[in-house]
Amino acid sequence: MALTLCFGLFGCAEAGIDSTQSSNTESQNTQITEATNVTESTEATQAAETEEITEATITTAATEAATEATDVTTATEPVHTHTWQAATCSTPKTCSTCGATSGLTAGHTFSDGKCTACGKADPDYVQVTMVWIPTKGGTKYHSKKSCSGMDNPDHVTKSQAEQQGFTPCKKCYG
Asked: Is 54 in the same domain as 89?
């Protein structure tokens, strides 16, 4: 009578049950059992090593993530409340503590051809020269109201005076 034995990695083998083969079968069974134990031990060792490597990888990744998080926290600046200085014609409002800026510049406010804040010249300014013209007779315009004894003169632009036919006074514009 023959018996077929199968042992995991070793495949299957036929084993006889008669008495002469009995001692051989026992020897083979012992060898197979020992081989199986070695294989199971090796597999257990490999599994443990794989588990250790995986745990080490996870631990390393967690440590790196924690370090990055710490670096980000350390790199941020302390929070403060801005103390804003008003915007000027050339700079937006500015924090006097940290130098941060916000918004737009205030823009120039021009009067008589210059910015009232910074003194910059108005590029669109056309200087208007005002003169005095007589209301009763006369053909000359003057820089002074009192010149030539004018009685109640009009104050007009030089351009207006010239359009009306007035010419410069020799005493005022000599």
From this structure: no
Statement to judge: residues 83 and 109 lie in one domain: yes
Q: How many domains, in total, are found in the chain?
A: 3
- Report how far residue 56's alpha carbon sits from residue 54's, in angstroms, rounded to the nearest whole number: 5
Domain range spanning residue 164?
128-174
Question: Following DSSP, what letter does each residue of the chain receive, concatenated?
Answer: -EEEEE-GGG-EEEEE-SHHHHHHHHHHHHHHHHHHHHHHHHHHHHHHHHHHHHHHHHHHHHHHHHHHHHHHHHHSPPP----EEPP-SSS-EEETTT--EES------EETTEETTT-PBPTT--PPPEEEE-SSS--EEBSSTTGGG-SS-EEEEHHHHHHTT-EE-HHHH-
Report pLDDT for 130. 93
pLDDT means over runs of 10, the chain (174 residues): 51 48 50 50 54 51 54 61 91 92 91 88 88 93 92 93 95 89
Q: How are beta strands 93-95 and 101-102 bridged, if at all?
A: antiparallel
Is 49 found in the same domain as 101?
no
Q: 0.85 exceeded by the pTM? A: no
